[in-house]
Design brief:
92 residues; 2 helices; alpha+beta; two-stranded antiparallel ribbon; 26% strand; single chain; 2 domains; three-stranded mixed β-sheet
Length: 92
């Protein structure tokens, strides 16, 4: 085996595609193995009001966002709404 064979192997698109599929399969299987043990946030989580005034409160399966000013900006860590979950926005 000489350097030309090594270069040819490196440039082989089918080999790269196989490696890509193997990596994807590993990542997906690792996610499935770890996923069920992680907490799932079915409602928006980690909301911080960055401008304006208002409140964010969770009651049971509902998240209530009450805006007290003319404008309200919120940054969220995650924003998901699962089945049987509700997000209510109350604006002036």
């Amino acid at each position: 085996m000489d350097i030309r064979d090594l270069v040819r192997r490196r440039r082989d698109p089918m080999r790269c595609d196989r490696i890509g599929r193997q990596v994807l399969a590993f990542v997906l299987s690792a996610g499935m193995a770890v996923g069920p043990g992680l907490p799932a946030f079915a409602l928006p989580h980690g909301g911080k009001i960055i401008s304006g005034t208002g409140t964010i409160s969770k009651i049971g399966h509902a998240l209530n966002i009450r805006q007290n000013s003319n404008t309200l900006s919120i940054n969220w860590n995650t924003y998901n709404i699962g089945p049987d979950q509700t997000v209510n926005y109350f604006q002036p």
